[in-house]
Records
---
Amino acid sequence: MKFDTPAGTNPIDQMKVVGKAHNRIDGALKTAGMAPYAYEHHDAVNNAAYGSIVGAGIAKGRIRAMDLSAARRAPGVVAIVTAENAGTLGKGMFNTVKLLGGPEVDHYHQAIALVVAETFEQARAAASLVKVDYAESEGRFDLKAEQSRAIVPENDGAGGRPDTDTGDFAAAFQASPVTLDATYTTPAQSHAAMEPHASMAAWQDGKLTVWTSNQMIDWTRTDLATTLGMQKEDIRLLSPFIGGGFGGKLFLRADAVLAALGAREARRPVKVAMPRPLVPNNTTHRPATIQRIRIGASRDGKITAFGHETLNGNQPGGSMEPAVVQSRFLYAGANRMTRNRLAVMDLPEGNAMRAPGEAPGLMALEVAMDEMAEKLGIDPVEFRILNDTQVDPEHPDRPFSLRQLARCLRDGAERFGWNRRNATPASVRDGRWLVGMGVAAAFRNNLNLPSGARVRLRGDGTLIVETDMTDIGTGSYTIIAQTAAEMLGLRLDQVTVRLGDSAYPVSAGSGGQFGANSATSGVYAACVKLREQVAQRLGFNASDTVFADGEVRAGNRVARLRDGAQEGEIVAEDRIEWGDLSRTYQQSTFGAHFVEVAVDSFTGETRVRRMLAVCAAGRILNPQTARSQVIGAMTMGVGGALMEELALDHRRGFFVNHDLAGYEVPVHADIPHQDVIFLDEADEKVSPMKAKGIGELGLCGVGAAVANAVYNATGVRIRDYPVTLDKYLDRLPAVS
Amino acid sequence: MKSFTYERATSAPDAASKAVSIPGAKFIAGGTNLLDLMKLEIEAPRHLIDVNGLGFDKIEDTADGGLRIGALVNNTALAADARVRRSYGVLSRALLAGASGQLRNKATTAGNLLQRTRCPYFYDTNQPCNKRQPGSGCAAIGGFSRQLAVIGSSEACIATHPSDMAVAMRVLDATVETVNAQGQARNIPIAEFHRLPEATPHIETTLAPGELITAVTLPAPAGGQHLYRKVRDRASYAFALISVAAVIQPDGTGRVAVGGVAHKPWRIDEADAQLPRGAKAVAERLFTGARPTPENGFKVPLAERALASVIHEARAS
């Protein structure tokens, strides 16, 4: 099915199942410990051995020699894989750096060996006996130092041009009576998923099966085939349950490659789980950015000039963090420019982490908007509404498909009690606490990817849905079941959903908040086909057939749905593809975040007191799982604002705090009551589901709302994330 | 994790003598720190002597009106003890500011005193660390040092002691009771229990090889306001940037110890004497000779401000 005209009325509009709050249908399995994660498919193979990864102990250089003799002699060791015996390995399309290093070392903790043993403990003990002689070389580890050597990348990291210019930014900025020119920095961040990367591999007759934890089955299957020099048809990848991804599991990583190589070398199945301290440097992270924002406005608050420049570092061949993307669409202004610059560095690979681009971009932009509003003497909510636009500011003939940003801001302000905010910073006290409120707009582009599904109607009237879509804790199982139930007139418990298996049709996968809308649209397409087949079997005219309550009705005729499958299961498969509507219309999601913080006037500790998100993201497929997505994202936003930072050792070129004791993410005590409101929307120009992504929108802008609240509380403006007390302690009121 | 042998100790002197005679032996009680370090091969004991069965799990009144806390009393039980809450509130507050409920259920009084630093370079076996591998150097000096020591550090080590409980024990003038391989008991004042790193940061306490902690005793209650203020980036389950343990009397005199700033709980008698003059005077004396790094210089004013908060709170209540 090609979606190339606005949806019109369709069976999803009944909203009998879709749009209703439902518990996750996989929830019982998860709470009972019966949902097997990558490392837990204990019954799938016999005689699995255990692999332990050796990570490079230097950031840049060459392995002169590796002494494996002690490791080979260690108890239980059955095989050791290094670049020397792994054979020629290809590099996947989505990989920037080789997943098995040696003799060259490209970054710290790059995998350089896998030690396979009878038990996990033996493998780990033997791995520590691998002796490596390194020739260390100079590396490029300091983004500021590399700034002058930064290059113009091929694109902005999101498929757009690296430089954009509309009107005459420089002249307009110079002529603006009110201007802001400020630089903001965001640190490297780690996905910190609960489940570390893990895989189990088994070979049989030249074919490979890998149980793994991965968001994108087909990308990863394809890249694994490329890496191993195989046909992808000879690889089966399974990832039915995933303990968090956040972009860290979009791609093939070392655990899967090394499990496959280890199993080949050991001639038996091998499991590899990445120890937590290896994850931040071995895998990808969100790279640090340096962003300069210039805004010029008339005295009445209309933006006349808008410039956003960003810089990040990456490995040779690595990509941009697309931090200026939102700045092309969020606010009006005739004269605009964006710039992307990329510094080639030797730190671990930077890549997608939840809301790549918008997350760090809005951390800067939405503080700049707060600063600008203050300069203009305009309320920050009103300033944003004043510069709202219903068209793409770079292409005024191109409207948004549906944009209710202003309503998000207005509804949120009313609900939050924004009118109680004192615009004068550092003027509200509650005992020893300095109290402030902050606001930020939320924006995240909507992406759609092609997505396929197969549906099987059984003789008992139940339905099975098969797609290689993944559920990374988001609720994919549930919304897919809701979609199929709505389309066929079934109850939710009559639908079985099977995900995360490369034996099923290729889906969008989970990432870029494209999963929910794309994958359910694929299921919609397959169900449309199934409805046609059922109608045909029953001798109904498909065009006026209604599927409801387990029945098929047309005119005066009524049949049971199951009767359609009486002569055997009916199978239908289709794939949603996307036409030009995303070019005709700018498709984005919108929201507003409101935050109240209290800052300890003695110690500077910031504690969040209240949070509200108002989201406009098309039809909400399941308000319960959608709310969970948003409150999780808001929590992540608090982490980004107040504590999350991969601390870099500039001399040794690695992230030092590489475990969850050192890399702090919020705990329950950090998170207050969170309110989430969804505007009642259906965006028919986006998909037959009329839905858009929600999983990343909830993060976008949160960091800035917190930073703006800290400013309102203290009068101290911090442009360097995370906003930790050491950065403003000396500017708090005297206490002694 | 390296393979190790394991036994349950039958008596304290037996445990102490085995710890001396069996190469690579270590005691284990709650294991909340040791097992993590073993998994990372930062610790690789060849033999574990489990002391959990030795019966040191009672909190008893002492003849002079104090408390004798068995070495195996877990942090949850100690924090909840009515006598501790009534007369040694700073200890209860410090315990509850540390770790998580699950960890406190397992972590013991003696083990808490003996927990090892959380310096990130100590945790990465690729990096030189004089504490982990004597003589290898210190990667933390000149590196990421935001969490690390500002005073009492050396050219060999800038690690801090991570305990909250120990800071309270220091301000309460606790005494560590031990027994050695010969069965001899001794009492070590808490002030003398933890060492500064100097040239041998791997030697963290004044315990002799094999010497086993049997109890920690507290003197008779000192009265006053008992306060513990822990400052950290997140609200729970994080090690202190700095912490302040204080006992403040109605006349403004009292005592104060600071955590998160040194290789041991940091207390200076002359600083205590400055308490009636306020936080600035105390902090000046506490941090005379401080040598912070560019990344952790904030700890000195932060400690002063936290102390001001504590004094403010004591006066208000």
---
Amino acid sequence: MRFFALICPCLWFCSVASAAELRFGLSGDPKTFDPLHVLDDNSEVVRYLTAGVLVRVNRVTDKVEPELAESYKLSPDGRAITFKLRPNLKFSDGTPLNASDVARTLNTALDPKQASPKGDTFRTDQGVPVAKVNSPLEITIRYPAPKPDLERLFDALSIIPVKAEKIPSSAGPFFVSEYRPGESIRLTRNPYYFQKPALDSIRLDIQPNKDIELTRFLRGELHFINKLDPESFDRVAKEKPAAARNLGASLDSDLLWFNQAPSSSVPEWKHKWFTSTAFRHAISESIHRDDIARLVFRGHAHPAAGPVSPANKFWFNAQLKPLPYDAAAASKALASEGFKLTGGVLKDRDGHPVEFSLITNAGNRPREAMAAVIQDDLKKIGIRVNIVTLEMGSLIERIARTAQYEACLLSFTSVEINPTEQMNVWLSSGAQHAWWPLQKTPGTQWEARIDKLQMSMASEPSQALRKKAFDEFQQLVVEQEPIIYLVNQDHLSAISPALKGTQPVAAPPQILWNVGQLRLE
Amino acid sequence: MNNALEFRISASYGKTEVLHSVAGTIAPGEIVALAGLSGSGKSTLALALLRLLHYRGGSVTGSITVEGRELTGLSESAMRSVRGKLIGYVPQSPGTALNERLKVRTLLEETWSAHAEGAGSFGALLESVQLPGDQVFLNKRAGELSTGQGQRLLIAFGIMHKPAVLLADEPTSALDVITQAAVLKLFAELNQKNGTAMLFISHDLLSVASISHRVDILHEGKIVESGPPGKIFSAPEHPFTRSLVDAMPRRMD
Amino acid sequence: MRRKLASAILILVALCALFAPAIAPFDYDRQFRESPHAAAGGQFLMGTDNLGRDRFSRLVYATRISIVLAPAAAAVSVLLALMLSRFSSLTTLCLSLPWIFLFIIMRALLPLDTGPFASILLTFALMGVAGWAWPARIFNASIRQIRQSGWLLQARASGMPSRRIALIHVWPHLRAIAVAQFRVLVPAYILSEASLGLIGLGVAEPLPSWGNLLAELQRPQAVSANPWILAPLGLLMLVMICLEEVSA
């Protein structure tokens, strides 16, 4: 009873808000309001909504659109970009904003003492860019070497004011007008912004409990939930059909891989299986991806075709199709490799029964269910899988340091559409080169080829050539299957019909990306 | 003939000596009352004589002989065959001295087999302490007995093996006046019937004096006066004895 | 009468567990992939889970595991407690140990090819061994009380041998505490097994246990879809009530 007594006044308070106030839940307090030091998702939401950026990438068309800059021009050598700012720009506290503020922001981000994660995205192997203020309304940023997609970097660089405050004033459409730790954050429309957003204010309720968030949404107290699990999504679909919005495949992939590191504790005969492309392919073919999507994710996932989610419309290699389930073909392929099925147990040429342990992180029920499906699928071709759930810390210890595991079930999450984002996974020398990290020289020819393609994707100025390299890379991964891609989960959202102007996308910040166009009815 | 019990002991808890060379002699068939205020070391003396004081954190020096047999220096297992066999013990307050979870039968049998082989028969014993010997009673748990019954049962345990000497530590203090009288009478009868020597430890001089042949007065860990009850009452010598006698209720004669 | 009924229920549950293969209509890990989330009735007495596994069969097999192992672990704890309770500083030390981290380390050291059954056996064994300090503390307090009791002194004064005293006089007191502690530990261990699953100890897929079946209750929405998800909880409560009744 006490619980209700505490919560009821709060709900009442929430429900009396002005008409043009957007309300949604945040899973926790933002760790920082400093746009250059954002690392966590909650801080990123606040940063995005308050960000004054020079340009914005349209998440639907993937075109770069003007914001604080009314136009930009890339130099022919691909090393420099010149922005022309809109006149009379101001921060939310009324102080004027001009080209020197842009230069100062960039230099602060690049200052090694700041250790800003934003600065890292601007650094290259060849060095850092130099900003030159041509006039109060014009600035040129020059790199020592060509930098592909240079203009896109500025989508994430919020221009910061001179005055460093815990909650700084904003150059974007909204500014933080009130912060009650553990309770809520209120954003108010920036009166000096060059455009007037339809929303007057935004209230972010700090709500760590997903079930309460869902209940509040269903009662109409919140306007959207950015990410729902399949079970909650089905509940929304049942109770408020118009609000359930499946945004299609997300950028994330669920996957598994075998430990191929030669220095690992894997017995020599198992190492032989794991390094065999035919073996990996047979495993891949024996896993019923449709069943995983249908049973584990209630149909809200799609069989994965390769290392890139189809949600990444531009970079995804459209030639690739998910590998269909075909246990018979897998068995045949294994037989031709010398594997024999005797008494329901598959044995290799030397008579070793084929069995391996599959590690995954404990406490993730969908992942455990996925493991159970895989276990059952592989049982059908005579392979025994021993599922071991580990606490995240010891899992990472095994895959990244000691290499004491046989196979691992995990997922890769992507926040950007950028193809070089996962370079640390794909370079054979990379620390996160999952199946065999930190190789001195590429262990196989195809890994050498992947290294080469990755490098060219990072430096090739021509987008068409980069796309070609990226397509070949994807093709190679699917052929060799060092990582067996299973499904791409759908991004599931709930959006109140009262919220208009949404063009949600599967990549962050999904519903909020076009906050300027959002309005309430 | 040897005395039933002879002792001269000092006892201490840690560095604090509570009995200072207390000596006593009890002839066969004699009843001696040891009187003193609470805190004078009465209960300590009983435990010391049984050599059980170390269970309460105390230690004893001196000499204890029962029927001429020296007890100090005996091993724990040898002491075990003395306790309950040569020296009977009747503790105070049956409420705590009886394990309330056990049946009367079990307690009797266990006390019996501590020193005897085979199955004991307890009819006569229970009759002698005026307790019923029927199955209903034997099947009762100790926790279900009245205080008087409990005290009688404890006396039965004490005399079961016909000890040379019976130590009774405030055996009547938990009882009402009428039961007290009956129990004291019982002790006197047992003494006459079996010739058991008894050491009565009590703060209640008046009640024990009625059945005692001799009274020792214990004060601050020392025996300050000793003599037949008549002399103690009529001509107490030690100031403490005098105050003890003065404090007694006067009979109306 | 109530006692008889309670014993009858316990025997019935134990028989179900013993003859699980005969009673369960399907294997606990058989996936009817065309019938996920099936409602109760028809082919599936209590419906199916997300992978189309028969809930009733899983419950029967889970009972087999939990009803044997949790009491066994509780018994181990109580026995250890009885043996070790005299070392009160050891008890205090054990109570202050960060067990969860020790468990995590333990799991990390365990070979990965430990089968699901060996893993759960080990989990309960660990709980049994780790859990002794709680009952030990209670034993300790009670033994201290017994040491000072008049009846112990009386028994000694009567010349009873120490072993006989321990068996006849002291044990009935400790037994009562042991039974009470056992009753507290059994459900605690059944539930702990579920939470140990979060650090990778406990029951691995596809083996069912009361613990991992109860973990499904974390989603209240699921219960309204198939109330039989509550069955393991109901069974656990029933067994605990019956145990209480029988051992009272």
